[in-house]
From TrEMBL:
Transmembrane parts of this sequence: 12-31, 101-123, 132-155, 175-195, 233-255, 283-302
PANTHER family xrefs: DIPEPTIDE TRANSPORT SYSTEM PERMEASE PROTEIN DPPB-RELATED
CDD domains given in the database record: TM_PBP2 (cd06261)
Keywords annotated in UniProt: Cell membrane, Membrane, Transmembrane, Transmembrane helix, Transport
UniProt keyword annotation of Membrane present: yes
KW ATP-binding (keyword) present: no
Protein name: ABC transporter permease subunit
GO cellular component, one term: plasma membrane
Length: 312
């Protein structure tokens, strides 16, 4: 196990180097000169030269690449070009509100999706099954903007059940008051595709020979579905969940923007609008690292769920 983990960590280095080079090329050659963006339309050659010197973009490319590699190694990406705030501080302070919304949303989406998938698969081919699939198709065809506007206007503005916007300082107040409606909207948007996907995973396993053997031995249908089928369907479910976890680091753009949540997704939008390259580069690198780490954790979870899986 330890040898496998060390080998996978070693294999991450070329991938990470490729990401670093891609990000560096995109932001330095394709993204244009940030000095012109920051100087504004009424700038002159002297002010642009001063900005370039302050940002370090007047250095040769190999020097800039070395600085970028040092920033990644130390997790210190300097200061925001737009606000002057430390990039590390921006990420750490904005990540909390995003996780307050997205972690409960991911847990509820996964648990509800698994439970409903097993129930629908249990009555597969019935009127209930067809009705649920039609409802999922209709739900998937509706834009998230429609959900946000309808829920925000109906439940928050008209009924007053939730705040329309805002965020506080207390964790429990934020979790139970301000993030409840965004979580409900996230569930309304995500539960339909999740249910359809998990249902297909369960039905693929329900048609296997070992399931027919279990039924022939006299096991109840509920035990067959919840124990035998779910255990084997857990592997693709884990893959789906773990593949989506890096998205927790970039937040929920629209939810945070509409509800005034000071999360990382809202900060990404502001960074793009301001051409705040240090913030964008830092988040890009962090998401790349998180993706590789979660891929490793996925393989380890495979073996935990099914010891027959051999790590290579």
């Amino acid at each position: 196990m330890l040898a496998y983990i060390l080998r996978r960590l070693w294999q991450m280095l070329p991938t990470m180097l490729g990401v670093v080079l891609l990000v560096f090329v995109l932001f330095n050659w394709v993204g244009g000169d940030p000095a012109y963006i920051l100087a504004g339309k009424m700038s002159n050659a002297e002010s642009i030269a001063n900005i370039r010197r302050q940002l370090g973009v007047d250095q040769p490319y190999y020097v800039q690449l070395g600085i970028f590699l040092k920033q990644i190694a130390t997790f210190d990406f300097g200061q925001s070009w737009a606000t002057g705030e430390s990039v590390s501080n921006i990420i750490t302070t904005r990540l909390g509100p995003s996780l307050t919304v997205l972690v409960p949303l991911t847990l509820l989406e996964t648990l509800i999706g698994i439970a409903l998938a097993l129930i629908v698969a249990f009555v597969r081919g019935s009127l209930l099954d067809r009705a649920v699939m039609i409802a999922c198709t209709v739900g998937m065809s509706i834009s998230i903007l429609v959900y946000i506007i309808v829920f925000q206007y109906g439940f928050a503005y008209q009924m007053g059940l939730f705040p329309v916007q805002g965020w506080g300082e207390n964790f429990w107040d934020n979790l139970l008051r301000y993030s409840t409606l965004p979580i409900l909207i996230g569930l309304a948007v995500s539960i339909a595709p999740t249910l359809r996907l998990y249902r297909s995973f369960v039905l693929d396993e329900a048609n296997q020979d070992y399931v027919r053997t279990a039924r022939a031995k006299g096991l109840g249908e509920a035990r067959v579905m919840w124990v035998h089928v779910l255990r084997n369907a857990a592997i693709p479910i884990i893959t789906h969940v773990m593949a989506n976890l890096p998205a927790l680091l970039i937040g929920a753009f629209l939810l945070e923007r509409f509800f005034g949540i000071p999360g990382i997704g809202r900060e990404v939008i502001l960074a793009v609008e301001r051409s705040d390259f240090p913030v964008i580069k830092a988040i890009t690198v962090y998401v790349a690292i998180a993706t590789m780490v979660f891929n490793l954790l996925t393989d380890l979870l495979y073996q935990a769920v099914d010891p027959r899986v051999q790590l290579k």
